[in-house]
Design brief:
mainly alpha; 7 helices; 81% helix
Length: 196
């Protein structure tokens, strides 16, 4: 019986070794496939995250571009407003800045200020502070002012050189309609004017 135990152990060890050898071709690919799949999934997840980050970065750059454009528009407006302020304060500069002839110094200052007010309202629309309807509402109120009405009438030639599809030209046409409506029925000045 003592000799049978070592023989059985050897036989048992041989069976275990044989089972390991039989399992090995099936077990390794499964482990490798699982590891490969996990690696592939990790790579795919990482690539997808990189693509998402890149799209987010592109969106942020596009928004930054728009904000920089608005900042430049505001800065240009500020620069022109400073010139107009100096011209309003100094009649000799007003004469250099204004293209209107045959008007008094006081009237020239009023025209410059009316232009400045109009430009400020238009700027608010350009940078997104006002929608189209709000822009027309503010301009409709401004059109009730006789000084602005005179400014608009005196500068009709200035607007003829504007590109037809520019915002300035579109607003100019809308204001012409508003002034026509005011002449026809001054009590209906608050009614929303033409669409964009």
């Amino acid at each position: 019986m003592a000799t049978q135990i070592p023989a059985m152990r050897r036989f048992g060890s041989a069976v275990v070794a044989w089972l390991d050898a039989v399992r090995a071709p099936f077990a390794r690919p499964r482990r490798t496939t699982h590891a490969t799949r996990a690696t592939r999934d990790t790579r795919h997840t990482r690539r997808r995250r990189q693509e998402d980050l890149l799209l987010e970065l592109i969106g942020n750059v596009a928004r930054l571009r728009v904000e920089l454009h608005y900042a430049n528009v505001i800065q240009a407006h500020r620069f022109m407003s400073e010139h107009q302020d100096r011209a309003i304060d100094d009649p000799s500069l007003a004469a250099a800045l204004s293209t209107l002839n045959g008007i008094s110094e006081d009237k020239r200052r009023q025209m410059l200020f009316a232009n400045r007010e109009y430009a400020a309202i238009l700027l608010a629309h350009r940078v997104g502070a006002f929608g189209w309807d709000e822009l027309l509402g503010h301009l409709r109120v401004l059109c009730r002012n006789p000084v602005f009405a005179e400014y608009w009438e005196r500068t009709v030639e200035h607007r003829r050189s504007l590109a037809a599809e520019s915002l300035d030209a579109k607003v100019g046409r809308a204001l012409d309609v508003i002034f026509d409506e005011l002449m026809d029925d001054p009590d209906e000045w608050w009614v929303v004017g033409p669409d964009e």
